[in-house]
Amino acid sequence: MTLLDGKATSAQIKEEIALEVQKLTASGIRAPHLAAILVGSNGASLTYVNAKVKACAKAGFESTLVELSEEISENDLLNEIEKLNTNPEIDGFIVQLPLPKHIDEQKVLMAVNPDKDVDGFHPTNVGKMALNLPSFLPATPYGILELLERYKVETSGKHVVVIGRSHIVGSPMSILMSQKRTAGNATVTITHSRTKNLKEITLQADIIIAALGIPEFLTADMVKDGVSIVDVGITRITDETKKSGFRLAGDVHFESVSKKSSFITPVPGGVGPMTIAMLMKNTLLAAKIRS
Model pTM greater than 0.90? Predict the structure, then answer.
């Protein structure tokens, strides 16, 4: 069993990005600039955004954090987005999700300029991705592709089962894995909460991408020997044996499933760190297009 180590791989990618930034700035081009809009004080979102800011500084990027009140009106938030859209110094930006309930998430994502949409969520970029045209790929699926590629996990002709159909991971992952690419050319089955006989389907899978948000859902009796597992889920579970009072669990029961796997991502330290690295890769691409 080989661990698909997202922590080590993302560190390597960030080093590659830092070298490219050095070359850009040495040739007189300004460093890439990534901005993030954070609405409210959601603890997980704050941690994630702070990690992005730190990663930017380490790679030589400029970064801007726009912190807004939980009570901000939808209209005022759209005005803040427009400021970033029209600011020539900003190469790419993200609006950290989730947003407060009174704000229409889709309306906000639609307001982001597709040329600065380094999260890859705008319909223009999703459409380009579906047609296999150059675009900003959604950061988490992009990170999974990089992990599979760099660890040389064979995907061509394999049966990939995606559990979960979200617009952020499941749906784009199913499209990308079926396309002609190094980590692609697979036959893909997408499953979800209404899928019948899920166990029968997962037992046929060569590769399983679990992204449904239910801790330790996928168990050893649901997978065949030699399967490759990508665990996208991360949930806090109460654990009184831990100093923090909780532990982090993925969508896969790691202890049992890892015994049958040829490749598997750990949680934490698997897909999570890759998301930030790919966000930076998209920002670097945006800066290069603009320069």
Answer: yes
